[in-house]
């Protein structure tokens, strides 16, 4: 209920104000302090403030309806509300501050890294191996500017730069040799548990891999045949080859390097060195050449290490070694229930009985025909290829002669030839002499390359 005007006037005088507009313009907290200072009752204080707000509202409404210019204001082109709201809540940018992303900003990556560097230097003493200045001496000379902050650099490039600065002090720079070349020479002879790094060899391997080629395909180019070093054909770097040829102490195990490089089992390595135990003394240059030849034949013809051993002039089996290859070839299953074995005291007779249309020694020859997938005439040709003699009727049943026959079969298989075609090809290669497979390792390797 509205109070009389006299009452409102009395209350205004009580707090030393002249109009209700003065009350309405005051914030409520200031008005409340003013009323309490004059000991005004709470009911009168609240009533006077409500009357002042109602009076102000009615006065504004009356003025709005009486002013003819106010309806035209709505038609004016006003700025968007979002802009007005932003300008109201935020002050204009002070151009005394740096722009976002500047290297001078306290919140830039450069400032963060600088602060991080100052804190990290205190983690360890300056004489400690873990000191930041020892681990990353390049940070001292790093210039913090806008160009360095905006320039992108790959992690690989940064790591390469750091590693180079680290190992540059450890290599002996050779006179008249660039530092990079000196580094590659140092790494090619560096001894570790892994094979040494050889830059030229690895570069060639990388190029061939990108072009989906291998070293063996280069042999098909006549212009390159005499110029290519056959060492890459063995997939062993010159650095590792040099290590394997050296005479070193027992503490440095050549066999371990060979295992890692070739991936062969210990049984295969034992078959090559002809022994139960493998030690460094058995890796002489001759044996090493044979091992590399096995690796070469395995990769060139896509055959197993056991088969590559035969092509490298190795016997099919040794005493006291695993005879799995021998039994798989000749006794899988045993012919007529009898196991075929090698025994130098027995002789395989190749005399052919025309009346019975079979060999006189049918027991052994039948096993050989089944193992080598040949007929009577092809088996006789294989027997002739085992010797330089044109007339051979019998051979001893030993590992050497059986390996010769198997080598002839493998040589035909890897070149996709029949026995007759192989004999014809050997005759063409050397028409002056009787075709045969040599027993000398070097001569055998030359013959295989010629075929």
List the helices and strands and how they pair.
Layout: H1 5-14, H2 20-25, H3 28-37, H4 42-66, H5 70-73, H6 81-89, H7 109-120, H8 132-135, H9 146-150, H10 155-167, H11 179-188, H12 199-210, H13 215-218, H14 222-225, H15 238-245, H16 254-262, H17 266-273, H18 285-301, H19 305-311, H20 324-330, E1 347-349, E2 352-353, E3 358-359, H21 362-372, H22 376-385, E4 394-396, H23 399-414, H24 419-429, H25 441-450
Antiparallel strand pairs: 1-4, 2-3
Helix pairs in contact: 18-19
Measure the end-to-end span. 125 Å
Order of strands in the sheet with most strands: 1-4
Give unreliable regions as ranges.
Answer: none
Output the structural class. mainly alpha
The helix tally amounts to 25
Determine the fraction of residues in helical runs and give it as a percent range. Answer: 40-55%
Mean of all residue-level pLDDT scores: 75
Helix-strand string: HHHHHHHHHHHHHHHHHHHHEEEHHEHHH
Strand content: under 5%
Largest sheet entry: 2 strands, antiparallel
Q: What is the multimeric organization of the chains shown?
A: single chain
Total beta strands: 4
Shape: elongated
Rg measurement, Å: 49 Å
Protein name: Insecticidal toxin protein
Organism: Candidatus Regiella insecticola
Keywords: Virulence
């Amino acid at each position: 209920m509205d109070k009389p005007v006299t009452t409102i006037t009395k209350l205004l005088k009580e707090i030393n104000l002249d109009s209700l507009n003065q009350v309405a313009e005051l914030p409520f907290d200031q008005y409340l302090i003013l009323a309490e200072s004059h000991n005004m009752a709470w009911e009168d204080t609240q009533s006077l403030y409500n009357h002042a707000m109602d009076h102000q509202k009615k006065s504004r409404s009356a003025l709005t309806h009486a002013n003819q210019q106010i309806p035209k204001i709505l038609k004016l082109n006003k700025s968007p509300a979002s802009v007005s709201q932003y300008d109201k809540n935020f002050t204009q940018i002070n151009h005394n501050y740096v722009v976002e992303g500047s290297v001078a900003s306290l919140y830039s990556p450069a400032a963060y890294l600088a602060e991080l560097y100052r804190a990290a230097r205190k983690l360890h003493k300056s004489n400690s191996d873990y000191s930041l200045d020892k681990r990353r001496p390049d940070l001292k000379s790093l210039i913090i500017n806008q160009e360095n902050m905006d320039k992108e650099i790959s992690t690989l490039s940064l790591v390469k730069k750091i590693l180079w600065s680290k190992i540059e002090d450890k290599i002996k720079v050779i006179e008249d040799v660039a530092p990079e070349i000196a580094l590659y020479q140092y790494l090619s002879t560096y001894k570790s548990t892994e094979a040494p790094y050889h830059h030229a060899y690895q570069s060639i391997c990388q190029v061939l891999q990108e072009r989906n080629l291998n070293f063996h395909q280069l042999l098909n180019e006549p212009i390159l045949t005499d110029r290519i070093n056959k060492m890459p054909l063995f997939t062993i770097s010159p650095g590792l080859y040099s290590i394997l040829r050296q005479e070193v102490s027992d503490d440095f195990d050549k066999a371990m390097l060979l295992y890692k490089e070739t991936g062969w089992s210990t049984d295969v390595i034992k078959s090559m060195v002809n022994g139960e135990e493998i030690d460094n003394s058995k890796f002489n240059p001759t044996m090493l050449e044979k091992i590399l030849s096995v690796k070469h034949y395995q990769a060139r013809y896509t055959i197993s290490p056991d088969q590559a051993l035969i092509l490298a002039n190795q016997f099919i089996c040794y005493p006291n070694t695993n005879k799995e290859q021998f039994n798989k070839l000749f006794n899988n299953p045993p012919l007529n229930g009898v196991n075929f074995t090698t025994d130098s005291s027995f002789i395989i007779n190749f005399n052919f009985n025309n009346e019975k249309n079979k060999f006189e020694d049918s027991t052994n020859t039948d096993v050989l025909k089944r193992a080598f997938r040949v007929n009577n005439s092809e088996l006789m040709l294989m027997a002739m290829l085992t010797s330089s003699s044109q007339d051979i009727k019998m051979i001893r049943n030993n590992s050497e002669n059986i390996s010769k026959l198997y080598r002839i079969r493998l040589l035909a298989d890897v070149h996709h030839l029949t026995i007759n075609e192989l004999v014809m090809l050997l005759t063409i290669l050397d028409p002056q002499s009787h075709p045969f497979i040599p027993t000398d390792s070097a001569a055998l390797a030359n013959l295989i390359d010629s075929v």
